[in-house]
Amino acid sequence: MHDLLTQKNLLTFFALTTGVVSIIELLEYLVTKNIPWLIRLLQAFWKKVIRRIKGTQPVGTQHLLLNFSGHPVLPAQLKTVEKLLQWPSSKVIDVPVGTIAEDRKFVANIVKAIERIDLSPEEWQRASIVALPAGYSAIWSVLLAELHGRLGYFPDIIHLRPSTDGAEKFEVAEIMNLRQVRHAAREKR
Predict the structure, then answer these.
(1) Are strands 128-132 and 91-94 parallel, antiparallel or unpaired?
(2) Partners of 157 in the β-ladder
(3) DSSP secondary structure string, 60-99?
(4) What is the pTM of this model?
(5) pLDDT tens digits for 65-117?
(6) Which site in 15, 56, 132, 146 is 20 to 30 Å from 156, CA atoms measured?
């Protein structure tokens, strides 16, 4: 017993204890400070696994209608959009934005809505995308900036108006090409 309590053995014991505690504290720091990063990493991995299991259609053939309005896209509206854009078919992706608190995390909460869209970076670049805007201008401004950042250009926008025939409350008035609007405005500089 006396041999265990020598100075050398006690120093070794304290060194091992300090090392173990330091490693535990380092792991705790890495995990707690990087939880959002780890969550994003796991979400990206999960999306890749799901895509691999499901299999995706060829990337260049997707025609997507991103619906930020909070209202369903009616069949007649979808047909009109496909006719105006000359798409053989399209897929509607409803992006629930909901009510967002007017706090300091306003932009971050809106960006999270876009991040829930299950598209890879390649699909963002190659898919034909048209958007049905949100009604609240502050939300739509952030959404449009985020879409421009992901696409590299402004998407086409669906303009709805009250219906004149009464079959549906709203009909597609036009598809607005924001790239043409931007190009025309640049010539006025």
Answers:
(1) unpaired
(2) 131, 176
(3) GG-EEEEE-SSSPPPHHHHHHHHHHHT-S--EEEE-----
(4) 0.66
(5) 999 888 889 988 999 999 998 888 889 999 888 777 777 778 888 888 888 88
(6) 56
